[in-house]
Amino acid sequence: MYRLVNMQSEVIVKPYTEEGSKKVQVADMFNNIAPKYDFLNRFLSAGIDKKWRRRAIKELCKENPKTILDVATGTADFALAALQANPDKIIGIDISDKMLQIGKEKIAHKSLNEKIQLMLGDSEHLPFENNTFDAVTVAFGVRNFENLTQGLTEILRVLKPNGTLLVLEFSNPRKFPIKQLYRFYSKYILPTIGWIISRDRAAYTYLPESIKAFPDGEKFLHICSSVGYNETKWIPLTMGICSIYIAKKHA
Question: In the chain, how many domains are there?
Fold first, then answer.
């Protein structure tokens, strides 16, 4: 069962209880649903999530990054897709060790261990030197940050000058009738199917609530600008159900 907590005018959504760290609860949640995560992503999105990743990778390829950090990498789907940008090295980082284990198995199966490295860690304390990466990506994970501003600031620190932040994230449709249909699906269908398959009702109640609470669109661009990014850009996808955000670090 999710909880909404008001802290300094920010709505924070937690998967399980009001008490305790969101970060710890999110890690526990993804550890719980890891075995079914990839299947549910495909099933609940009718496969459209693959199209969204391809569109985001198309934007990433324009930057020609040689070093990429994939934050909230999960089972490494986006890290694997980012190989299309022809980087020299990709590092994926996540707070869920069970999600990472699945990702490592995928990478090993494709004999890509030299190209992609996965490690345990979180967005607010990245274990890298300043100005390390040409690009940092976050696919369907930025809304899970415990402190969004701190996470974005830490990503900015490890980006090289002129480096690119690319975020792929769910957003809230604004137009009739997709807005109403999406709300119905999120409130009734998604949690029910998610619980039947994963046996974790809270996880798939948390998902739509975290999307609803996330400062999407222009609000997210404003937060990026406030912590030091420039050249911010928002690309809505599939009638606003998902969005790509792009931001640059000053030279």
Answer: 1
Report the SS3 class of residue 71. Answer: strand
Buried b (16+ CB within 10 A) or exposed e, 63-86: bebebbbbbbbbbbbbbbbbeebe
Residue type, 82: A
Q: Does residue 22 contact residue 14 with C-beta atoms inside 8 Å?
A: yes
Report the C-alpha gap between 230 and 228 in whole angstroms: 7
CATH number at residue 235: 3.40.50.150
Contact by Cβ (8 Å): 245, 166: yes
Tokens of 19: 């008490």
The DSSP output letter for 62 is T
The percent of residues in the chain predicted with pLDDT above 90, rounded, is: 73
> What does each C-alpha distance from 156 to 11, 85, 226 come to in angstroms?
23, 21, 12
Q: What is the pLDDT of residues 131-171, one digit of tens each?
A: 999 999 999 999 999 999 999 999 999 999 999 999 999 99
Q: pLDDT digit string (tens) for 84-101?
A: 999 999 999 999 999 999
What residue numbers bound the domain in which 148 lies?
3-249
Amino acid (1-letter code) at residue 248: K
CB atoms within 10 A of CB 35: 13
Cα 145–Cα 146–Cα 152 angle in degrees, nearest 5 = 50
What share of the chain has pLDDT > 70, as a percent? 96
**Is-contact 80 68, C-beta < 8 A?**
no
